[in-house]
Design brief:
It comes from Halorientalis brevis. This protein is mainly alpha-helical. The protein is built from 13 helices and three strands; from the N terminus they run H-E-E-E-H-H-H-H-H-H-H-H-H-H-H-H. It has a three-stranded antiparallel sheet, with no helix packed on it. The termini are far apart.
Length: 325
């Protein structure tokens, strides 16, 4: 074959390939071969159907989803084989590997002494890689403290998550120098509880924390000021359900306590008063009005406030209620 023939042959092949390209591109568009209408994919049936004429263009498509079905959240969690979602409550957000402490294999059999030593070395090195720098060690200690205190106070997981985010922000903005890790962690939890509408008093927070009340209050004011957190003053009514529940009082007492506090707000009695003291006094007064007597000492123990405060606020609430009547 001569050079001229080769050039002519290659030129013809090139022109043919150029002519074929538009045809391939046209085939890739999702249009119905019958009417030219648009196609829609039905993932439940595994079919591609024309929206205009209903022609089934393809069927028995591969389903990329799981092979199991779940009818509620619990079944979904039990059957799912993927890892837990990322969370701010762990210093590595739950993305690292965790080696269990049980010295057993996949079949439940105990490991030999040599294998146990090997697993212990792996755990040691795994822990070192998980906390490689001072920031990660700081986070690990602080988030552990937040989780411990939240468990002791009975706070929900959403509050722990918010407290972890607040602490991470404080760490990123370099607010920790000159302050203890426990103090900032406690202040973050206190702020998160108030933001979520499930506040705890400073006395309750101090009871589970490793720092003093004055340091908690001082660090809390500093954190919310530097991070520009918008936290409303605690509402006395938010304490009522917990106090009534711990004292085993009825819904009638809780309702009357709310009415007393609403009346106090209208009369301006609540101004400058501790919301915990007002809530405790309202619960005590409502229990007397509903003939479900509890002692001031019992209310004092639940609310972590003195009996003198309860007596003073109790008379003020009843006086405000009398003015309204």
């Amino acid at each position: 074959m001569t050079d001229t023939t080769i050039r002519e042959y290659t030129g013809e092949r090139a022109s043919e390939s150029q002519d074929e390209e538009p045809i391939e591109q046209e085939d890739e568009t999702l249009v119905c071969p019958e009417c030219g209408g648009s196609l829609a994919t039905d993932s439940e049936r595994g079919e591609t159907v024309c929206e205009e004429c209903g022609l089934v263009v393809s069927e028995d498509e591969i389903d990329p989803g799981p092979e199991w079905r779940a009818f509620n959240a619990n079944e979904k969690d039990e059957k799912s084989r993927v890892g837990a979602p990322t969370t701010n409550m762990m210093h590595d957000k739950g993305l690292s590997t965790n080696i269990g402490w049980q010295d057993k294999d996949a079949y439940g059999n105990s490991l030999s002494s040599r294998q146990r030593e090997k697993m212990q070395r792996l755990r040691t090195w795994n822990e070192r890689f998980r906390t490689r720098d001072s920031k990660e060690r700081n986070l690990k200690q602080a988030l552990g403290e937040i989780d411990r205190m939240a468990s002791a106070l009975g706070l929900p997981e959403s509050v722990r998550e918010t407290a972890s985010v607040i602490y991470r922000r404080a760490l990123d903005e370099d607010l920790l120098p000159g302050r203890s890790i426990e103090g900032v962690a406690t202040a973050s939890l206190y702020a998160a509880a108030r933001q979520a509408g499930t506040p705890r008093s400073l006395d309750e927070i101090e009871g589970v924390s490793r720092v003093e009340k004055d340091e908690i209050a001082r660090t809390y004011r500093y954190v919310i000021r530097e991070l520009n957190l918008e936290i409303q003053p605690a509402d006395p009514e938010s304490y009522v359900p917990r106090f009534a529940s711990e004292l085993n009082l009825s819904d009638e007492v809780e309702r009357r306590a709310r009415d007393l506090l609403q009346t106090a707000k209208q009369e301006g009695v609540h101004s400058g008063k501790s919301p915990v003291g007002l809530a405790a006094a309202a619960v005590y007064a409502a229990s007397l009005l509903a003939n479900e007597k509890v002692t001031q000492s019992e209310v004092s123990d639940v609310a972590s406030i003195s009996e003198v405060t309860i007596r003073n606020r109790y008379h003020e609430l009843l006086d405000a209620e009398g003015q309204m009547l």
